[in-house]
Amino acid sequence: MHSSHMIVELLKLLAASLLLISFAMLSRRRTQRLITLFAWQGSVLFISTLLVAYSAGLTELYFSAALTLLLKVIALPWILHRLIQRLGAQWDSEPLVNIPTTMLVGLGLVIFAFGLAQPISRMATTITRNTIGIALAVIFLAFLMMITRRKAITQVIGFLAMENGLFFAATSATYGMPMVIELGIALDLLVGFFILGIFFFQIREQFDSLDLSNMEALKED
Amino acid sequence: MLPIAHFDAALIARGLPLLLLLVAVWIGLGLIGLLRPHSVRFVARVVFPLGAITCFALGAVAAHFLVSSHAPEVMTLPLGLPDLPFHARLDPLAAFFLLLLGLAGAGISTFAVGYFRSGQGTAPGLHCLQYHVFLASMALVILADDAYFFMVAWETMALSSYFLVTSQHRIPEIRRAGFLYLLMAHIGALCILLSFGVLQGGRWQFTFDAMRGALLTPFWASAAFLLALIGFGAKAGLVPLHAWLPEAHPAAPSPVSALMSGLMLKTAIYGMLRITFDLLHIRYWWWGVLVLGVGLFSALFGAIFAAVQTDMKRLLAYSSIENIGIIFTGIGLAILFAACGLPLFAALALTAALIHSLNHAFFKSLLFLATGSVLHATNQRSLGKLGGLIRRMPWVATLALIGTLAIAGLPPLNGFVSEWLLLQSFLFTPQIPHAFLNMLIPLCAALLALTVALAAYVMVKFYGVIFLGQHREPSLVHAHDADWMERLGLAWLALGCIAIGVMPQLALRVAGAVTGALLGQAVNLSSPFWWIAPIASKQASYSGLILLTGIVGVVGITFVMVRALAHGRIRRTASWDCGYPWQTSRMQDTAEGFGQPIRHMFGPFFRMERELPAPTDTTPHYRIHIEDRLWRALYLPIARYVQRLADWIGLLQGGRLAIYLLYSFLTLIALLVFVR
Amino acid sequence: MSALTMVRQFGEVLLAIAIAPLFAGWIAQCRAWLQNRSAPPLTQPYRMLRKLFHKDVALATDASPLFRMTPYILFGTMVLAAAIIPSVATDLPFARVADAIALIGLFATARVFLSLAAMDIGTAFGSMGARRDMMIGFLAEPALLMVLFNAFLLSGSTALPSVVEASTAHPFLIDPSLVFAAVAFLMVLLAENARIPIDNPATHLELTMIHEAMVLEYSARHLALVEWSSDLKLFNYACIGFALFLPWGIAARGADGALTLGVAVIALLIKLIVAGAALALIESLSAKLRIFRAPEYLATAFLLAVLGLLVHLLLGA
Amino acid sequence: MVILVVLGLPLLGALLLALFGARRYAAELNAGMSFATLIAVTFLVLRVLRHGSLLALHEQLFVDSFNVFLVALTAFVGFTTALFSRPYMRIEEQRGRLSPQRLRLYHSMYQLFMGAMFLALLTNNMGLLWVAMEAATLSTVLLVSLYRTRASLEAAWKYFILCGVGIAQALFGTILLYFAAEHVLGRQGMTALLWTHLNAVKGQLEPRVLGLAFVFLLVGYGTKVGLAPLHNWLPDAHAEGPTPVSAVLSGLLLNVALYAVIRCKVLVEGSIGSYLPGRMLMTFGLLSAVLGAFFLWRQRDIKRLFGYSSIEHMGIITFAFGLGGPIASFAALLHMTVHSLTKSSIFFAAGHASQAAHTQQMDGIRGLVSISPTIGWGLMLGSLAILGMPPFGVFASEFLILTTAMREHPWTTPFLLIALGVAFAAIFRKVQPMVFGECDAPPLPHSPALVPVFIHLAIVLMLGVYMPFALAEWYRAAARLIGG
Chains touching chain C at 3 or more Cβ pairs under 8 angstroms? Predict the structure, then answer.
């Protein structure tokens, strides 16, 4: 009981750091840094999953933890890293909305997310129930990041961060989805990511830059 | 109100299956036409005559039903929606309009036999299919007894006629006309649909029988009525929903123009009557005033615009608006009287409206077909290039003269009968138990009289400019008369005009069956067949037959006596014209010239653009372009607003991904706020 | 219907045909007197008709049968109208054939035929006259209808005999509402019969012509018939006026002794004389209007008729 | 086990075509596989008609009267589209817009896409449903970007990001759903995401959570349905992808996404017992219908035009589902059917039309009836059908929807009226000059495969005037399932 209490505190800490990382992502300009942050996010997710798995004694959570480690800590950041090396897209151009404003909006979103999550947390039985709000906040922040950035690759990172948030939500609210689903999600994520990888090169050769501002041809005029 | 009690008695249908069979025959004929789509001979010489015969048979069956039994007949077809099979029903109202459709249609189809030549845009076979589907759908509209069947037939009618209108689709104006037509028809149809949606009164029953039973609150009843008025008004060409009519009717080949003007508009009248007097369980007096006002305005509007037209088919199209207006005036009066509890007078007004529909079917078709013959003979539609055809095409000219006199509302022809009846019913409006109404509405009679007299003016212009005077173009010398099938068709319609005019009592009896069914009251039908005295013979009476015989007799006697007394020979000389020697055919009144007094007097109605020659012009010419104010007042603004709205909404699709994401984000947030 | 009524009917028609030109002649004579001209003899119209009947017809080369039929049709319609209007007696077998509205229609028929005939030759004046005449027509008809409305409100019928019987039964000399109607009717009459102030029957100035312009191309017997029927038209209108407003003396139903009929004929003649004089007086006192003043003129007539209507509805019958 | 066959055949097809997709007979193979699937589906349908709904594979898959008809529809349209794509893609290849490699990708992805949709339709597991939807998205992303032009890449990218994000929301919704279900059903036996079980206990599910879940699911799947204002990917994807893909996107994918929404709606409505979800659907529906109609007004590109028209019609269908009740649901299902049939046939015709005129710009397309009567009349009749002209079936459903709306919520009818009227004007004024008028374009190299067009239109026409009893029963059962 005592140890579990410890774990809960630890989990809260991890959750807080997750949120912190999201804010950091929101504020960073360099793509390189974003990837690192993403990797950090993944690892925090991995640890928290491990803790939850241990405390709740669920074997399948170990699997998903491992999956997280493989995908989000090692594979994806590495590929992303290589990508930006190959595409030479280290710098993101100035975001559409300036950073402080984004931060403020993000703050509001966090509050909103907490408020939203309260009823859920109240009826949750998991030891991580209080962190559902944070998961939701992470999702919102990732969304915000996708909206404010104008490089394709940063949008993708935002997308992956959102995926993380979802995963965290799953673990914290329900100790993770059934295994089948987890695998399916992971597979989709991987495939989607590879498709994106292919895309980057095509976009590069067509638009000779990953700047989304080139991609505004299709519209009502 | 049709008593539901009749219903069980009439379960053994008699006329109805036959009618449906004939409709099926039409569709079959259309499909047969597709067998040899490009052979004009086959289509014209084989299919169309059969179609004409079918028309006649249809009319005959309907007539038999009207004179023999008035008990409604019902049938359910194994088609339609699962919970809503097609219901068909034959009652006096339907039979009356089927009679109209059959008899006038027979003449038109006969004419069409001679009319269709090769090189008419759409392939003849396809044309034949569209033509007969058009006829069939009109019949089905009249026979339908549930909302769904009605709507299907209604829209099929619009669709087939649209394809007929655009058969010359290579001409942009015709495509534009077709588009406008189909658009208006569709919007009108939506309104009718909504009206049915109200009428079923939440009982989820779409058979008309159920609607008869539905009790609506005053508000909803009025809503249903107004929606129906908009819907059917759009089809009938009531002002201000008329804009499509003068575009579409002239665009079509003449037999089709005749079908549309003569018959299709009547289906709108039918629908109006069906909803107002049959499906709605109650009528309010202000409905009557509304319809009366709209009708009179349309009538006047149509007459005035017809007077200034320079294209013969447009002129006829506007005259259709006028006649529809007159019919609606009658309907409005009938509603008013019925709402005020004066069923006999309501019956009188309704009879007038019905008979005028019948008349219009005959003389308007006749005139449109005549223009078709003229078109074939001269390739000219503009009045400014015609003239003197009475000497080149005596047959068409003579038959057209009958139509002209009839539509001008002159005794002893049919047009006069209905207008006489309508004026008679106006005479009773002082008895309406509403202050003001009983003083104001009599004045409408004067407006009606003005319209009728204007119609005479228009028709003198129409006939005089086309057939009388001297050829305005030398090429007209080669104009040839219509071939015998065309003449047969025209003659049949002319015969109809004369018959109804001379023996109005027959029409009165037929209409009496309808009013009896709808209002439980019919005008006095006791008098002999050559004589009408709708209320009482002391009050007012009229006999076309005696009038005709009288005129013919006196003319004959005069002729004989003059021959006997006067010994002068006849010398053919140049015309006198006050001794002016150098006169040419260009000096006679043009269509524009004939319209000039109207332009002068009713200036506010038009939007005119004049080009006057300067005193110094070496080659002076005068051009005037007349436009319907409603275009700029109503239609163009609507189009503009839609355009502007579309532009605004287009901004949503700005092409920037971030914005799109923002949309979905905001939507998400908004919904979340909404649910918690 | 008994033989007697038929006889009466035909008698009346023949009387109308006979004295119509006389009436026109009488008006002309009065006008001449009023204008200090030496008057033509009363029989002048007859002489002219006789002359015309004996002349050769000069027919334009491209005149169609319609052109040649029209004079007969005009004459026919007018005679028929005369047969319908109760000028001497109300109990006429023909009177029920057409009520007052149908009578208007009959006149309209005549007008349309004349206009068509005028356009037939294709001369400038003909079509101009046709246009103007039709215009006067459609302006006059609403006013005329309103006049009839007045009569109808009094008698509850548009059949002239019933109107006559009703208004003869009327206690007072004439119903107040009818006064307005009478004035309106008079104005319409002038307009419809091509008299001053709308048209001048005696004009020879082409551009102001209406009726004359239409009949320019007619000659000899055709012209005779046209003139005769226009005389008849005037006569008919006068008789309608009498029937509506001055019905005294007209032999009522049932009372068909020779005496009453005689009285009726005398009454008719007196009325005609007075009316003719009055018409001539009005024509001499008023000036011809410009053609586009006609709408105002006839609108006034219309308003008067409506006024009568309202007076009736307000005062109640 | 016929279900497994239905699911397996497309995957097998994807595999085969991944191998032989570049060969000459690939198109025939594609059509063949689709046909085989159709056969299998027919057996499935017969089975369901005979024995009612059935479960398979530890309840992971199930078929009831609701999804079976969508499965049948999907298989049918999939097959006809494969038929159509044969000549169409040949012509594209001849014109050098596509390489054999691309064709291989196209064919195998086509089959994969079909497979994904079948899975989405047939699965009983809300999680699997999500996975399948995502898979469908991914496969279509590749299809949309097939031409590798700037425009197609841009369209594909937007499609991917928007739908990806949307789908992510759906996943969160699913998690919430699972969370709520777990409290009732427990974690054991993994039944907590099975729709049948959820449906059984929907009364006990926590309302507030389900309300939130529904919002996320609606936004997520709604993005794929193309509900305004989440629709922005749709016109681009329709316009820039190859025409057969536009046809299946409009005709099938939207239906499947809507299917997912409706499944969720049934649960949520049952749980919170209020008509809140219904109202949400109605609002979205009306909004999409009206906005779609006004978007139509200003289109120049023929495929974009009909893409927007899909938005409008999806709006109408969603609205009808929102209305609820047996009749409206019936109408909505009917409208789903006729819309996908009509719209795909229109895309067939439009595709050939733009091939004949060498442009998708409508100003460049003229006088189709003179080039090829079949294309011209196909486009004309198809457009008239989609515009709700009787006697085509679209009218039948619109009739029911409008009259129901008039009875239930009269205030909505003006919007519907505006939407339908504007849509009519917008589409018809564009279609008429394309079909009619003068033209001097040469005929197509391959004879266009317009048999599908007329088969579709014939079915739609039949549904307008006559509906077979079995079909009606089927719709009724489905409507009962949805609308109660």
Answer: B
